[in-house]
Amino acid sequence: MVVFGLPVLPGWADLPAWTPHPLLRKEVKGRGELRVAPFSPPSGELSFYSPDPETPPFTTTRVGEEATLRVESGKGNYHWIALHRNEPERELSLATVHFFSLVGPSPQAMLAVPKSRLEIVPSPLPREHSVYRAEEAWDFLLRFDGLPLAGQVATLYAPGQMAKGFRSDERGVVHVVFPEFSKPSGEQKTGHSRRPLQPFQLGVEHVMAGRHFTSVFQYEYGPAPLFHRSPWMGWLVTGVGMGGGLLLWRRGRGAKR
After folding, report:
1. Tens of pLDDT along 97-114?
2. Considering all CA atoms of the chain, what is the largest pairwise distance in Å, rounded to the nearest integer?
3. Please, what sign has the CA dihedral across residues 140, 94, 107, 200?
C-alpha cells in the first residue's frame, strides 16, 4: 500500500556532490514501512514493485511528493522502487531496492521482469543480513528492451571516491568492485545488517534512434571485512587463537597425567 504525505523529506534540499544523478531518499519508519522521496525531479513517475507475483506494480504521477510504502507480513523481502522521467529526447530511470525483514517470496521473478527500456539489474542482490562491501566484486546485468547490453560502460559513484567505469561482457554483465569505504559522514547510515553503510550509484548511458537513455541503480555498501582492511589485526587474532589452542592442549595433557 502506498500513502502520500509531505512534498519532500526534511533536510534533503541539496544534491550531494558525489554523484551527477538525481537521488531517491529512503527513511525506514518500521519493520514494514518505508518513506520514499525523489530528489526534486522536474517530472517523473514513482513506481513500486513487489516480489509477490500477485501484487501488481503501483505507479504514481504525483511528482515530487513523498510516498510511504507499507508491506504486510508474507509480502516482505526486497521491493523495487523506481523513478521514471521522460523528456522529448531523453529518458531517465532511477531505481533502488529496499529489504523488508518480513517473510516474503524470492525477488528473482521481480528482477527478471523489465521495468524500463534501459536497466541495471543486480545479479544477485545481497542475502538477508549481508551487504555489498568495499573491495568485493559483484555482478550487475545491463539490459535494453529486455536484452543484454554488451560492451557498454557503467560508472560507479560513491562519496569521497573517484568515479570508475566497468565495461559489460558479451552477456551484458559488469563485474563491479566496490571502492574503499569513506570516513564517517552525514551520508552514512546503518542497514538491516546493523553495519555502517554509505550510498553508491551505478549509472549507464545508451543512445538508440536519436533518443538518449540513462539508467541508474542506487543502493548502499559497507566497509571491507576487518581482515581485509587490517592485516595486523588478522595476525593478532590468529595469534590469540593459536595461543588459546596451545593452552587447551597443554591443559589436556596435564589432565591425562
Report:
1. 999 888 889 999 999 999
2. 87
3. positive
Give the DSSP letter string of 5-42: --SS-TT--S--TT-SS--EEEEEEETTEEEEEESS-S
**E strands within the chain?**
2-4, 24-30, 33-38, 45-49, 58-60, 67-70, 77-86, 90-100, 118-122, 132-133, 137-144, 147-148, 153-157, 164-167, 173-177, 189-190, 196-208, 211-222
125-149 tens-digit pLDDT: 998 778 999 999 999 999 999 999 9
Q: Report the C-alpha gap between 214 and 19 in whole angstroms.
A: 14
C-alpha dihedral sign at 67, 22, 148, 106: negative
Q: Which pLDDT tens digit goes with each residue over 56-88?
A: 887 765 555 667 777 887 788 999 999 888 888
Q: Which range marks the domain in which residue 66 is found?
A: 2-224
Same domain, 153 and 234: no
C-alpha cell at 240: 590469540
Domain total in the chain:
2
Residues 14 and 60 in one domain: yes
Q: What is the pLDDT of residues 211-220, one digit of tens each?
A: 999 999 999 9
- On whether both 204 and 240 belong to a single domain, the answer is no
- The verdict on 50 and 163 lying in the same domain is yes
